[in-house]
Amino acid sequence: MTTATARTCLSDSWTRCSTNYNLDPSERWETQVLSQPELRFVSGRTQRLIQSALPEMQRLHTLVDPLDFTVMLADPTGIVLSRHTQRSNLSGCRRWRFQAGAVWNEANAGTNAIGTCLREERPVMVVHDQHWRLCFRKLTGMAVPVYNSIGELAGAIDISSFVAENVLPAAALLMDALQTTARRVEEKLFHDRFRKDMILTLGPSTSSSAMLVALDRDGHIRGATHASRRHMNWPEGELAGLPALLPLLDSQEEPNFRRAEAQVIRSALGTVGGNVSAAARLLGVSRATLHRKIRALGLDH
User: Fold this and answer.
1) What is the mean pLDDT of residues 10-15?
2) By mean pLDDT, which of 88-97, 159-168, 254-263 is the weakest?
3) For a pLDDT cut of 70, what percent of the chain falls above it?
4) How confident is the model at residue 29 (pLDDT cuts 50, 70, 90)?
């Protein structure tokens, strides 16, 4: 996100706080925290997301823990589903409601990383006095959207701190780590759902979503990630009824999925002028794997 885009995002959020939500910035924040039965119900509906995100959140926490950040996963309504923090921060997390069941939507909490990220559906960083509520002006938060296997917004992954001072020098690295985490969660959900299909990479990843598509043996589209849908102008949800992504020939000697794969590889090589290393990066595979596929498909002649 560019500096200008970030400023516009926060400015729009402040406008919503003032005009849409009628929030008084000096008013004491009454945090809504779900009861245990309510949290169990919400967690039950998002169990697949929570399970897929768990190892990635642990990995992210090892990276940001030295900077005193707590890692949180929220659902699309801003309810925190899971949290990872160091033991010494537990009392502070309770005070600031960095905890499972806390509701951090923008309409309730004002401008904040989780709520504004979900409202804008893009990466957000909110530092100190960029928060709408005066009581949050010691907080630093960064969040990115995470998507499910059918391209829908599944929630947000957030890192927040109540003690961090100047994180701006590390902001780009922290945002990159967040986006990588979100993509890995999305990829796990996607591969689990379409494990029996051929999964191809359409191009480089964008923000927190990877450009993946799943094809059946005939080259018809079975699924696509959020980034792929935006790139191809496909809708969210199921993709039944779309035509085959790749033109297929009528020859009976070769299985259709091999022809589809061959055409994708030819297209990638053509895009990068025949450079195998660049084509491998474009397709999201190793150079050795691409060489092996080229030989197996007879494309090296």
Assistant:
1) 96
2) 254-263
3) 90
4) confident
pLDDT in tens, 184-194: 999 999 999 99
Residue 124 has pLDDT above 90, yes or no: yes
Q: Supply 194's token pair.
A: 């379409």
Sign, CA dihedral 4-10-13-17, equals negative
Least Cα distance to 84 among 93, 146, 162, 46 occurs for 93
Round the CA-based radius of gyration of the chain to a whole number and report it. 22
- Largest interatomic CA distance in the chain: 73
Q: What's the mean pLDDT when you consider all of the chain?
A: 88
Residue with tokens 């090892």: 62
Give 80's contacts (C-beta < 8 A, 6+ positions apart): 72, 73, 74, 98, 99, 100, 101, 102, 103, 104, 114
> Bridge partners of 126?
141
List strand residue ranges (DSSP E) for the chain, in order. Answer: 70-74, 80-84, 124-127, 140-147, 153-161, 198-201, 212-215, 221-224
Q: Could you tell me the pTM of the whole model?
A: 0.79
Residue 275: other Cβ atoms inside 10 A: 13
Q: Estimate the share of the chain in helix, then strand, then coil, as percent rounded to the nearest 5.
A: 50, 15, 35
Between 25 and 301, the more confident residue is 25
Between residues 297 and 66, the one the model is more confident about: 66
**Exposure letters 225-244 (e unless 16+ CB within 10 A, then b):** bbbbbebeebeeeebeeeee
Tokens of 227: 């980034």
Q: How many Å apart are CA 104 and CA 113, to the nearest integer?
A: 9
Q: How far apart are CA 10 and CA 252, in angstroms?
A: 58
Rounded-to-integer distance, Cα 248 and Cα 258, Å: 10
Dist CA 277 CA 75 (whole Å): 39
